[in-house]
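COURSE: Structural Biology Practicum
ASSIGNMENT: Worksheet 4, Part C
STUDENT ID: 0417
INSTRUCTIONS: Below are two proteins. For each, the amino acid sequence is given first, followed by its structure token string. Answer the questions at the end about the second protein only.

PROTEIN I
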Amino acid sequence: MGRTPLFDRTTVVRSARDLFWVRGFEGTSIAQLESATGLHRSSLYHCFGSKRGLFDVALDDYLDTVIRPRLRVLRTEPAGADAVLRYLSSVRVAIESLPDDAARRGCLLVGCAAGLAGQDEAAREFVAAYWDEFTAALRQALTIAGDPRVGAGVVDQRARTIAAMSTSAMLLDRVDRVEQLAILAAAEALVRSWFSPVDEPGVTPA
């Protein structure tokens, strides 16, 4: 009969997640994971199989506890343009509230896309699934916002545009926080322009 682990798995996973979030998969050593989690490598390997196994669990936790709660506003009735604006605003406000000396970690999934996913099929599939989930949530909100002059193709294009701007902003967190906030503000302005009243009949917003 196997021994019961003498540690809290959730605490260990989130400690590792936060370390991966700052340093990335490649930049995180087993020694650093030992220090962050308080576990020896033998315990980490026994519980998670490998550094990569721990990273996969950390990605799942990040998606469930950080990303999906933030996306919920896009799926909750009444969703629509206001929901997209609330989503973008929540990200911008969270960044603005960080102290100047806070770690510049951006988004763990965006970091994975820029690093590990470039040479790892499983990581690539995970990031692609996240992108699909993100754009689907945006597409749902923008569809509910509803403009009878705008077809599904335009809605899809808009969802991809906002997703791309948000992703770019997260990537810039490590480089230029001012520009990062400017991109998020520009995304908010773009959404407002799509749903502002049009004076000339028959004109379809871009």
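PROTEIN II
(use this one for the questions)
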Amino acid sequence: MSNARWKSYAAIGMFLCSSLAVAAEPVLARIAAGGKLVIAHRESSIPFSYVDADKRPVGYAMDLCLNLAEVIRKKTGAKKMEVEFLMVTSSTRIAAIAEGRADLECGATTNNAERREKVAFTIPHFITGARLLVRADSPATRIEDFEGKKIVSTKGTTPLKAVVQANKERLMNITILESADHAQGVEMVEKGAAGAFVMDDVLLYGLASNRPDPAALKIVGKYLTTEALAIMLPKNDPEFKKLVDDEMRRLILSREIYPIYDKWFMKPIPPHDKALNLPVNSLLKDFWKFPTDFVPF
């Protein structure tokens, strides 16, 4: 190997090591040194994380993350801590955390084994499952009713993977389309481009309630999945994760999380000031009796 080539490889190696060192810097240490906290959010994951009429990120998960931000500020001793918001999609959210562009992802993201290879999750703030959003005049009541037809789900989501797997296993010959986001999936159903939109039912209720004609849509079918939704955070940052886990556990066991939940699921919410009327379900109540970041599914 020539001396010039060796120097070139050495320079590349030093650059990579430097990059990794920056990426691996603990969140709390960075903020204590004057850094900012970056919160990733979604555009249309109602009521968890979405933008209001003023383009501000709002929602159930956002309220939880803003509570966590204050705990982080106090822990680091920062008198002022800049909080920056980063909009992400189903396709970009995991990379945003894994690559260090955001510290918390506050949305409706499922904690599963595949994702835990790249990121960490705190204690779930919701448990749900994927069902079908169809037009009110549709006779369909289950996924098998779409044999040989078209359905849609959002790119990069666990419901999309679940419906692809079900289609393969049951030989239903369904044409599965991918939408860029949840709002587009609903629009495709409304316009007849797809017979159903497959997504977590709590998101479907939120999306439907904010359409111009909510009565024109309905949610049908058995659960295709069981989804534990949780805030994402960087992997291999144990001090940061412990702080987040401890605060989530405190919110749950003190029941302070319940008024936050009711604000977004039981009371009128923007942009149309309609209530979802979804009380805490039995799955979540049971899970919150012994709050943990471990999920069995």
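ANSWER KEY EXCERPT:
Q1: The longest strand covers residues 130-135.
Q2: The chain has two domains: 3-127+228-289, 130-225.
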